Amino acid sequence: MRVIMMVLGCTLLLSGCSLDPHYQQPSAPVPAAWPQGASYPATAQAHPSAEDIPWREVMVDDKLRQVVEMALSDNRDLRKAIADVEAARAQLGEQRATLLPTINAGIDGDRSRSLISGSDGTTLSSSYGASLSTSAFTLDLFGKNRSLTGAAREAYLSSAATATSTRLTLIADTATAWVALATARSNLALARQTMESAGQSLAVTRSRLRNGVASAVDVAQAETVYQQARADVASALTTEAQDKNALDLLAGRPVPEALLPGDVASLSQAVKPVVAGISSAVLLRRPDVQAAEHTLKSANANIGAARAAFFPSITLTASNGLSSEALSSLFSGGAHVWSLAPSVSLPLFDGGANLSALRYAEAEKQGYVASYEKTVQTAFREVADALARKGTIDEQQAAQRDYVTAAERSYQLASNRYQAGVDTYLNVLDAQRTLYSARQSLFSLEQSRLDNLITLYNVLGGGGK
């Protein structure tokens, strides 16, 4: 037992050395504050920040909340990300075990018959033993296993941060898909309304033709509008079905009809706005940025392991136990036996393998530095884009509402002039198409406004609570 304890003592005393390079977080290659200008809203200090606001306080529509809960429970991408975290945790435990020796317990016995020299007699001999042993344990003198354990730890933390990022993205994607379905339903209702109106206009125009008031050209033009409306209804039905399928995929199972949205105009208060704040330092707390940094730290630890390969390694094989000729007296009167067999290995020539491994680890780290910086830059752009959209969407919506009002008045005036016989039916059709397109654009802008609220919350790191 003393031999085994000596091995454990050596492990604790000689495993403190590390050849990992000193880690320094790369500077964020982005401005310290968000962009300013005509396209951006006025900045203000955010209290609390987006990451501290629970997603249920941002997505306040009860139906939307329930659909997001479904996604968090049943989405397969999120399940895969969580499984990846558990796998990384297991790999960390496996690597951490290399820091300690493996101790085995064993009992063995041997019984043999042999001839007595100079006679015809034989003799029986027995041998029994019990021992604790450790085999080929490498003392971590230069920190190779400790560096590999550090790399595994950072890989685990990166996997956990990636899972958090997947969760945040899932919340945003589910909300966006739910709003998209509402827009599709609004467009479908508008297409059906337009087809019904076009059908009525076609019937009236045909009646006017029979009475000699309208021309065949008017009927043909009215027929064109009606058939186009029919095609729009079919297209809108397809879009609605596809958007529903996309929502079901995110939710992990079919979303009940009771949880589906109404028209997009009814969702104006479904999502609350968040404040971006002033400083861009909030980006460093985003889970995807943290995942990139943990990956960089893992690469940094791998350099330490590659450096340690240049130094000698000491391997110990040891055992400690009892030996007796009788099993009954093995533990009461057995002889104490032990062995200790250290070995030293010094790399003299490896064809440049260790040097190449070190160069690879150093180059890999530089690649991860670039990846980390690109992740920060991408995060900054995502927030800047969302802020630019936020700064202009309200004005664009107000202008579009006025445009719809003007298009409605134009259509009504054109219809009245045609009914009075002072204008052609072509002007009525043009006004009708303009109104139809204006209403579709208004739906799209409301969708964009809601999407922007969701996106800004997501790119600021919100959704973790």
TrEMBL record:
One of the GO biological process terms: killing of cells of another organism
Which terms are listed as keywords in the entry? Cell outer membrane, Cytolysis, Hemolysis, Membrane, Transport
Q: What is this entry's stated membrane topology?
A: Lipid-anchor; Peripheral membrane protein
Bilayer-crossing residues are none
> Where does it live in the cell?
Cell outer membrane
- State the GO CC annotations: cell outer membrane
On the tree of life, the source organism's domain of life is: Bacteria
A molecular function (GO) term: efflux transmembrane transporter activity
Is Phosphoprotein tagged as a keyword? no
**Role of this protein:** CyaE is necessary for transport of calmodulin-sensitive adenylate cyclase-hemolysin (cyclolysin).
Q: State the protein's name.
A: Protein CyaE
Q: What organism does the UniProt record list as the source? A: Dickeya zeae
